[in-house]
Design brief:
The chain is α/β, with parallel strands linked by helices. It is 52% helix and 15% strand. This is Response regulator transcription factor.
Amino acid sequence: MRVVIGEDEVLLREGLVHLLENEGIEVVAAVGTAVELEVEVARLEPDLVVTDIRMPPTHTDEGLLAALRIRRSHPGVAVMVLSQHVQRRYATELLEPRDGGVGYLLKQRIADVRTFTEDLRRVQAGGTALDPDVVAVLVSRASKTRGPVGDLTPRQLEVLGLMAEGRSNAHIAARLGTSEKAVVQHTSKIYDTFGLPVAADDHRRVLAVIRYLAAAGTAGTAGAPGTAAPAAGSQ
């Protein structure tokens, strides 16, 4: 897997390069601005882009906007964006343009090297990876509406959260200490409750669930802008 990194903090950028190369992932370029990121992607056509959301010069959403442009202009390039903050809008904007090949994680997840690199490989393979804290915000907002999220059992909510993170039935079963058959039963109930068609493809089911949650959360807070919450341990 060939990767281009976009991160303006030198120490974190160098740390990411070292981490990925130690895991057998080839870093073909590592840059500090969104402009450089797009130039290198166009030049190198990597398999995956890993980028910070907040980049120079304003340190607001340059990295996010670059990621969205890359997704449109280079459909074969997967994108993983990293952030210090939970922002529902980032997730919905990233997931909207096309199916799969996208992830949104908080920077604190990098510390769990095995899970982080597994998420990168899943995204590069066309899957999705959504941070658990982002999923929690989506589920919380959706549960405050008068929609069907409130009709789910506690176990179904656990399954829903893991589905939205991009986890497979096998992973969910192992995580919850249950059988894959039981997970399938729970996911079927979730689809029925949401009125969603059953999808055999893991990636499409994840996107369907995330988009449902995002839409429900927006409907429940009509007219209110998306809120950002600091990630645990962030400044």
